[in-house]
């Protein structure tokens, strides 16, 4: 593959766009100054009140994954022969077929 001068310019522009995006996105992730009542009111207005519940459910899901789902997946991968894994995969594909068919019809 040969090098073209425009390629270097494209990489620099892409990098610049990424840096600008990250700088702008970082501004939205900061807490407002407690001495600015307008900023605190705006923060409270857009703040997610269900965040504590979401974090608790996320931790529960991570715990279930670690304690139950990951060992089951490892058992399935290591103990069940590949032939039966393929048959199970085929059966699950067949169960998804009506949903895919409906989606195809709706897309025309």
The tally of strands reads: 0
What sort of overall outline do the alpha carbons produce when their principal axes are compared?
extended
Output the number of helix runs: 4
Helix/strand order, N-terminal first: HHHH
Structural class of the helices, strands and pairings?
mainly alpha
Task: Name the beta content range.
Answer: under 5%
**Weakly predicted, low-confidence segments:** none
Q: What is the radius of gyration computed over CA atoms, rounded to a whole number of angstroms?
A: 25 Å
The percent of residues in helical segments reads over 70%
Overall average residue pLDDT: 85
- What is the makeup of the main sheet? none
N-C termini distance: 41 Å
Please characterize this protein's 3D structure.
The chain has 108 residues and is an all-alpha fold. It has a domain at 1-46. Helix content is 82%, strand content 0%. It has 4 helices and no strands. It is extended. The mean pLDDT is 85.
């Amino acid at each position: 593959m040969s090098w073209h001068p425009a390629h270097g310019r494209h990489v620099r522009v892409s990098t610049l766009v990424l840096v600008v995006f990250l700088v702008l996105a970082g501004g939205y992730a900061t807490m407002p100054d407690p001495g600015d009542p307008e900023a605190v009111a705006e923060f409270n207005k857009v703040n997610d009140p269900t965040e504590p519940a979401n974090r608790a459910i996320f931790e529960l899901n991570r715990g279930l994954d670690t304690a139950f789902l990951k060992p089951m997946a490892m058992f399935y991968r290591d103990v069940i022969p590949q032939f039966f894994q393929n048959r199970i995969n085929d059966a699950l594909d067949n169960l998804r077929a009506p949903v895919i068919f409906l989606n195809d019809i709706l897309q025309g």
